[in-house]
Specification:
The structure is a single chain. The chain has 485 residues and is α+β, with helices and mostly antiparallel strands. Helix 7 crosses helix 10, helix 7 crosses helix 11 and helix 11 packs across helix 13. A 6-stranded mixed β-sheet has the order 3-2-1-4-6-5, with helices on both faces. A 5-stranded antiparallel β-sheet has the order 7-8-11-10-9. Strands 12-16-19-20-21 form a 5-stranded antiparallel β-sheet, with no helix packed on it. The radius of gyration is 33 Å and the shape is elongated. It has 3 domains: 210 residues, HUPs (Rossmann fold, 3-Layer(aba) Sandwich); 78 residues, 2-Layer Sandwich (Uridine Diphospho-n-acetylenolpyruvylglucosamine Reductase, domain 3); 144 residues, Phenylalanyl-tRNA Synthetase, Chain B, domain 3, CATH 3.50.40. A hairpin with a 2-residue loop joins strand 19 and strand 20. It contains 18 helices and 22 strands.
Length: 485
C-alpha cells in the first residue's frame, strides 16, 4: 500500500504529465530531507512506471568534513536502495569568482551542468529535482523583493522542459513526516540554518516574522499567488505569441517588428512581444530587465528613425522607419574610401564588397552589346552614361558631406541625404552603398538611381558603360535596398 504522500505525488505525475512510463530519470540527491524523499518516492513508483533511475550527487567543496559525510551518506543510501550513483566535485568558490556571481548561483550552474552531462551519457529523458512548496514560496518572495512582474510571481514550474519537480506541491512538514514514519534518515545542511544568503533570510527570518505578526502562513499564500499568476501568465503568453506572429517581419537572423502592427496592441502585450523577440535573438529570456523593457517602450512611443537602445549581451534595438530591429550592436560605419575610376578596366572597392567595370565605346557598339539605354531599369547593375559629359574625373567612393544628385526624370537636384531619407534607407546602411561621383555631383547610386545630368540620351555619341559586380563571398549586402525602382 502506498502512503498518502506517494499517492499525492503520483497524482501530480499524471495531472502534469511529468514523465511517461519507461522514462529514464536523473535525480539530484544532496542527502537532505527533500532529495532523499524524492529518491525514495521515485523508487516506490519505479515498478509502476517502469523507471530507470540514476542518482547524481555534487560535492560543492564548501563545507569540509560535513560535505564529505553527506557524500558518504548518499553513497550508502543508494547502495541500500540499489540506485546507480554518479558523484561529482566542483570548486564553487572558484566558479563564483570566475563568473562574478554568488555562491548560490555558481552552485546551481554546476549542479545542472553535471545533471545534463549524466542525462546525455545515460540517454535519459528527465532531470528530477527536489524543490518543494516552501522552496516555491521562497522563490516567489525573492522575486518580489528584487522587483518582478507576473512571470516572476509564477515561481518555478512543476515541469520545465526536461526538468521535473515532483515535490513542488508538497510541504516541508509532509516530507519530514513521511521520512519519520518510514524510518528514513537524512542529512542536515548546517548552512541552511544561517542567514548569510537572501533565500535563507527569507526562510529563517522573514517568514517567521510574517507568521508571528500577521497571523498568516506566507508559504500557503505565496503558493496560491503563484498558481493564480501562472494561469494569468499562460493566457497573456498565448495572446502575445499570436500578436508576435502578426507583428514580426523577420526573425531568421535579426528580429524585425512592424511599428504599425505593434501600435495595435496594449502595452502589456507589447512588453511580452519584446520579450519574445529578445528570446529569439538571445536564445533565452535572461538578462532583459525592467529598465530595458521601459527603454524599448519609450523607443516605440517616439518611433524616431535612428534612435536605439543598448541591450545586454552585446545586442541593441533600433528604430528604422516602420521597424523595431533587434540585432547585435552595429559595427562602426564603413570607413571613407575613394578610388579614381579606371575608364577602360576594373576598379576594385573591397570596402563596398565589389568592383566596377568601365568601358568607353560608341553608342552603336553599346546598343549592340547591351541593348538600348531606355531598356535599363534604375535598379540594374549596368548603366550607360554620356562620356563627353563626364570626362576623366569620376571616382568610386561612399558618401561625403555635400553630395547632391538630380535623379533621373527629376527637374531639380536634391541632397543625397534627402534622397536616402525619401527612399527609407536606414542610416546604418548609407555608408555601405557605392557611389560613382564627379566632385560632389553623384553620377550613379549603384543599384538604385542614376543622375539625369550624366545619363546617355538621344544625342550621345560616345558612352561610358559601367557595370557593378558584388563579390560572391561577401554575403552581407541587403538586397531589400536594391530593387527595381
Amino acid at each position: 500500500m502506498k502512503g498518502d504522500l506517494v499517492k499525492t505525488i503520483a497524482g501530480d505525475i499524471e495531472k502534469y504529465n511529468l514523465f511517461e512510463k519507461g522514462s529514464r530519470i536523473v535525480a539530484g540527491v544532496s542527502g537532505g530531507a527533500d532529495s532523499v524523499c524524492l529518491l525514495k518516492v521515485l523508487c516506490e513508483l519505479k515498478d509502476e512506471y517502469n523507471l530507470s533511475i540514476t542518482a547524481v550527487h555534487v560535492n560543492h567543496g564548501l563545507r569540509g568534513s560535513e560535505a564529505e559525510k553527506d557524500q558518504e551518506f548518499v553513497t550508502e543510501l543508494c547502495q541500500k536502495w540499489e540506485v546507480p550513483l554518479r558523484i561529482f566535485r566542483a570548486d564553487i568558490k572558484a566558479l563564483s569568482n570566475e563568473k562574478k556571481i554568488s555562491l548560490e548561483e555558481a552552485g546551481r550552474i554546476a549542479r545542472y551542468s553535471f545533471f545534463n552531462q549524466v542525462l546525455k551519457e545515460q540517454g535519459a529523458n528527465y532531470i528530477a529535482v527536489a524543490h518543494q512548496l516552501e522552496d516555491q514560496a521562497e522563490t516567489v518572495m525573492h522575486h518580489i523583493l528584487r522587483g518582478t512582474g507576473i512571470d516572476g510571481l509564477c515561481g518555478m514550474s512543476i515541469k520545465q522542459g526536461n526538468i521535473v519537480r515532483p515535490l513542488l506541491n508538497i510541504s516541508r512538514d509532509e516530507i519530514i513526516k513521511y521520512l519519520y514514519e518510514n524510518g528514513i534518515p537524512y542529512c542536515i545542511d548546517s548552512t541552511n540554518l544561517e542567514s548569510e544568503y537572501t533565500r535563507n533570510r527569507i526562510r529563517n527570518e522573514l517568514f517567521p516574522f510574517i507568521r508571528d505578526n500577521f497571523m498568516v502562513n506566507p508559504v500557503a499564500q505565496l503558493a496560491r499567488l503563484s498558481n493564480i499568476a501562472r494561469e494569468e501568465q499562460e493566457f497573456l503568453e498565448n495572446a502575445a505569441k499570436e500578436a508576435y506572429k502578426k507583428a514580426v517581419l523577420n526573425d531568421s537572423g535579426n528580429v524585425e517588428l512592424s511599428l504599425t502592427k505593434l501600435k495595435d496592441f496594449p502595452d502589456a502585450i507589447k512588453k511580452r512581444i519584446i520579450r519574445i523577440a529578445w528570446e529569439k535573438i538571445n536564445n533565452n529570456r535572461k538578462n532583459l530587465e525592467y529598465v530595458h523593457i521601459e527603454q524599448l517602450m519609450a523607443l516605440l512611443t517616439r518611433g524616431q528613425t535612428g534612435k536605439k537602445a543598448e541591450l545586454p549581451q552585446g545586442f541593441e534595438a533600433r528604430i528604422s522607419y516602420d521597424k523595431l530591429i533587434f540585432s547585435k550592436k552595429m559595427d562602426k560605419s564603413t570607413a571613407p574610401y575613394s578610388y579614381r575610376v579606371n575608364l577602360n578596366g576594373i576598379t576594385v572597392a573591397n570596402e563596398a564588397n565589389g568592383m566596377l567595370n568601365a568601358s568607353v565605346m560608341s553608342i552603336k557598339e553599346a546598343k549592340k552589346l547591351y541593348g538600348p539605354p531606355e531598356s535599363f531599369k534604375e535598379g540594374d547593375f549596368v548603366q550607360f552614361f554620356d562620356y563627353n559629359k563626364l570626362g576623366n574625373g569620376i571616382v568610386l567612393r561612399n558618401r561625403i558631406e555635400g553630395d547632391r544628385i538630380r535623379p533621373r526624370g527629376s527637374r531639380g537636384e536634391k541632397r543625397l541625404k534627402e534622397f536616402f531619407i525619401d527612399e527609407k534607407i536606414p542610416r546604418e546602411k548609407r555608408d555601405e552603398i557605392p557611389l560613382i561621383a564627379r566632385d560632389n555631383k553623384i553620377v550613379w547610386i549603384v543599384g538604385m538611381r542614376t543622375s539625369q545630368d550624366f545619363r546617355a540620351d538621344k544625342d550621345t555619341e560616345t558612352v561610358l558603360v559601367l557595370t557593378w559586380t558584388y563579390f560572391q563571398d561577401g554575403g552581407d549586402r541587403d538586397d531589400r535596398y536594391y530593387k527595381d525602382r
